[in-house]
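As the work plan foresaw, our protein records have gained a structure token line. A representative record is set out beneath this paragraph:
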Amino acid sequence: MDDIVTVTVVDTEAELDRLAAHYRAAGGPAVQMLNMLGGKAEGLLDKLPRDVRDGLGAATERALHLAMETAQGTRRAVPDQKPWVNTAVATAMGAAGGMGGLPSSLIELPATTTMLLRAIQGVAAEHGFDPAADNVKFDCVRVFSAAGPLKDDDGADLGFLSVRLTLSGGAMQKLIATVAPKLAAVLGQKLAAQTVPVLGAVAGAGTNYVYTRYYQQIAHVHFGLRRLAIDADIPHDDLVARLSARMAPSLS
């Protein structure tokens, strides 16, 4: 008997619509709530002490390196969780960090970074990629180069999907050095929100809720496009352009 070959027909347009919905869902009411707690996003960083602001880039780079070492190790000990579990754990961590103001928030920062990376790795696995593979580790960190959750881009900033970075010997070091300044601004907003008097724990929980939800949605876009390019046999750049065209109406 001849072997039966099953061909999976990919509805590219429907999948791109779904990924566009993920991108739009990254923002929304939760971001508005966070802005109400911590003030306007553009003013949050100014609330941090100068020495903290000046050291945020280096601290974020160290946190990313630590997250890379820790997140993969936790995957071997604890299986991937559903997105709401990741969000709940990160929210609780943010509340605990915010209770003690800036000192406890700085201590909590590496743990939150690890939790965010772990959630991104879970999305990669959900799309059929191995988070232990070097190229997938690379892509997981690249997700952090998307616009931050308090950045009101409404889908405009899709450039991170098209950035070409070569996976070579020192590639991860270079990638982390490239991503760290942008992530530092994002995490700086989080730290500042957690310094709000009385509301520090609430702001800490709120920022971690928003950030975890945001990066999980962005990871779905990133790895969803990777999977679609393979399954539909369409160049990745073409898919990025078609996704960007779907987001264009929101810019008018």
